[in-house]
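=== RUN LOG ===
request id: a7f3
mode: sequence -> structure
chains: 1
length: 202
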Amino acid sequence: PPSYFIATSARDTSQPRHFHALAAALASRDRRVVVLVDEQRHDLEDTRGNPAVLTWPSRRPTEARDAVFLRRLLRQYRPSAVIGNFGATNVMMVLGALARVPCRICWYHTLTGQIDLDTPCSQGRLRRLRWGERIVYHAATHRVPVSFAAEADLQRVFAVPPQKIKVFHNAIADPLASGRARPCDRRSREIVCVGRMFPTKG
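=== RESULT ===
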């Protein structure tokens, strides 16, 4: 059967849950699925299951040993598709292209403006990073931004044609799914923001 590689975070948040649910759904359709998680979470590993769960050699898969690890897995499984997220995107798209994986899907979460604020470095280094990212996004066969702003960012900064982009909005659990909503006091003023506690999130 066709096999799929999905790289996602090991954290217990909505985005990794989405990709673990995708892996389970593919496995239920008799597809072989390998989920690659970061943070060196060896306690999550399951090499015999479907989906199988493997851990990158590095905490964040951006080192040469992660490329060697992925190259070995690509030769072993010969996947039909690779799905890259977060730090794993670069190695997944570039090695996936070199291994001629037919479908290379890049999820696009973080806008370049945020990366600029989060990465204290010179303008020259930022330009080199952009050049490398452009190679990565053009190595993908499909780009999936999580918002219309991310879609515009892909087009503006990396010159990705609009027909090669499909927006898929981030999904979080419905807080009203239980049917119990907290009464609202019209005199109170509350602001709800979904995001990391990080300076670039405001």
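=== NOTES ===
The chain has a mean pLDDT of 88.
The CA atoms of residues 32 and 137 lie 25 Å apart.
=== END ===
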